Amino acid sequence: MVQTSTNHAQHTPMIEEEERALERTASPDTEPGLQELGWPAIGVGTAMATWAIARQHGLKQILFAAAGAGLIYTGLKPGFDKGFKRLLANTAATEPVEIDITTTIARPASELYHMWRDPEQIPRFFRHIKRVEHLGERLTRWVAKVPGDMELCWNAEITEDKQDELIAWRSIEGSELVSSGVVSFFNLDDGQTRVHLRLRYQPPGGEFGAAIERFFKAIPEQILREELRAFKQLAEAGEVATVRGQPYGGTQNREQGLSMLTNR
Amino acid sequence: MRALCWFGKEDVRLQEVPDPTIINPHDAIIEVNLTAICGSDLHLYDGYIPTMESGDILGHEFMGKVVEVGPEVQNLKVGDRVVVPFPIACGHCHHCHTDEFALCDNSNPNAWMAERSFGHSPAGIFGYSHLYGGYAGGQAEYVRVPFADVGPIKVPDTLSDEDVLFLSDIFPTGYQAVDVANIQPGSTVAVWGCGPVGLFAIKSAYMLGAEKVIAIDHVPERLAMARHQAGAEVLNFTDDPILEALKEMTDGRGPQTCIEAVGMEAHGTGLMDYYDKAKQTLRLETGRPHALREAIMACAKGGTLVVPGVFGGIIDKLPIGAAFSKGLTFKMGQTHVHRYLKPLLARIEKNEIDPSFLITHRLTLEDGPEAYKTFRDKQDECVKVVMRP
Ligand SMILES: [Zn+2]
Ligand SMILES: [Zn+2]
Q1: Is the Cβ pair B112, A192 closer than 8 Å?
Q2: Could you say which of A59, A238, A239 has the minimum Cβ distance to residue B112?
């Protein structure tokens, strides 16, 4: 009889380095004013996109939350700018969220690193991002799609950049959400690459209540998992698998039914 | 175009639907020459596979002619005659690199759903529920084939549509069941279920060196086919006590390789069968594992049990103690069809096998809805239905 024990936390030097990189992104101002709110460069758009994605395609598990988001959106629409920024400003009472996702990709680390650093490529896998503008060596401006033909922008500063290995960033002034993140690319023995993404952000809360906070905590992770999957598919297979646009026997309830099931 | 669509339990209809178009750069559009109803389609027909949606186009066994290719397809051109494997594989992920095409990481658009159910997502499959990607199937005039450089294999003009159609699933599926068991020359193989996969497993077992193949079923015409077309010794489980008979026929040792080619809707006899039916009706378990239980009990010590039949969810009352105590090896899963296309096409070309031997019904798509019922009820001595759109 053999007792097996699982070595849960794989404590590699890489992970310690990620930890340090993430610590170094910490913003000095923990209670942001209106002007320097921030989410993680990716996390922001992710949450935003959720509104669109959840309403039109949907993950079964998040329909409830999505419906809530739809309501907020409707409420915010008339005074989007003012209302929304107030929502985002209201982070004081919320617990920060950390998202931690790992995947393995059968391409070299250097190739994946370059995909991640290429502003042209990013909207192909971060599908809620409209475009990424290059402002300087370490500065990018992100433009996300928001329902109702609106845009949401923020600036991200790269705080650490090790070629083919690791990129860390945080939001800076002129952004609308507080966030930071690190992605690392680690060559495995079998020629594959471990991609590890970690994000920290402060979900909005305050007057919008606990349900909203829960929504912003739960959804970005779902969406990010799908976007990291899209990244893997693009890197490995050169396209993202989809069935959108294929034929089916027509029924009125079909699209509604599919929205319960299909992601893409 | 016309297509067979699923609308619910025992409700398959021929519908007019839009033609498929190229969506991704590695897609091709195939004009279907010949398509078949698979035994596993009956699980959809009987409503045992979750995440089907009203209007889904059925069918994962088909072959035809390329009529359009996406901008990045390189190995195929318009006019090529091809057979298409039922699992969809990207050709570039870790599992595709190791020839485990049915485990492809990148072909299931609903991978998150499969991860909820299975922990990880298998490959997408044509016409086989949204859990497996929600891809439109090939029981239609046209079908969109993703990753067209990876799956479809070109077939020579010297072979007829019927000669090659079953490369899409049941021939490789029967063959893989024996191949993964790694049988030794002179060994005995027992096959539960003499449907199309079972029949191909029997033929494949002889191809790969089995001394004796024993086939188990209860449908007379299928047993006759197993005996006369495939050369198996047969047992009818309504007449013979299977465990004793198998022991008798293997000098007391039991078959070294047991292949369960029945799947989640196995028929049995006795109390346990009523128990399973009742539970399955209540959806407490999703399979009726009668044949699986029997195969575990029958298998020789140190033997291998292969499960090519489809299981979708949860079953219970499995004699896992027997499997453990006898040191059995389990092999299971969807077929890595791509792996077998070339070698099996070569066997067909060399006349080592005529895969069309089991076709009993040659029909059109219009006959499809009726054919599902005929096949499910095993009426009219139905073993395999092929349809020409
Ligand atoms: Zn099949
Ligand atoms: Zn693959």
Answers
A1: no
A2: A59
Please judge whether A238 and B25 are an interchain contact, meaning their C-beta atoms are less than 8 angstroms apart: yes
Q: Test A237 with B136 for CB contact under 8 angstroms.
A: no
Beta strands B361-364; A193-201: pairing state: unpaired
**Whether the Cβ atoms of residue A152 and residue A175 lie closer than 8 Å to each other:** no
Structure tokens of B280?
């399955």
CB of A191 within 8 Å of a chain B CB? The answer is no
Amino acid at B234: V
Give me A201's structure tokens. 């952000």
In CATH terms, B171-332 corresponds, of 3.40.50.720, 3.40.50.20, 3.30.70.330, 3.40.50.300, to: 3.40.50.720
CATH 3.90.180.10 occupies which residues in chain B?
2-169+335-387
CATH of domain A97-237: 3.30.530.20
Q: Where are the alpha helices (DSSP H) in A118-261?
A: 122-125, 209-237, 254-261
CB of A249 within 8 Å of a chain B CB? The answer is yes
Q: Which of B3, B51, B109 sits opposite A241 (nearest CB)?
A: B109
Q: Which of B249, B21, B73, B113 is nearest to A239 (CA)?
A: B73
In tens digits, chain B (389 residues) has pLDDT values of: 999 999 999 999 999 999 999 999 999 999 999 999 999 999 999 988 888 999 999 999 999 999 999 999 999 999 999 999 999 999 999 999 999 999 999 999 999 989 988 899 999 999 999 999 999 999 999 999 999 999 999 999 999 999 999 999 999 999 999 999 999 888 999 999 999 999 999 999 999 999 999 999 999 999 999 999 999 999 999 888 999 999 999 999 999 999 999 866 655 555 556 556 656 655 555 555 788 889 999 999 999 999 987 766 667 778 899 999 999 999 999 999 999 999 999 999 999 999 999 999 999 999 999 999 999 998 999 999 999 99
Q: How far is B72 from chain A (nearest CA, A)?
A: 10
Contact B136 A246 (CB under 8 A): yes
Q: What share of chain A is helix, strand, coil (3-state, %, to 5)?
A: 45, 25, 30
Residue intervals in chain B for CATH 3.40.50.720:
171-332
- CATH superfamily ID and name for B2-169+335-387: Medium-chain alcohol dehydrogenases, catalytic domain (3.90.180.10)
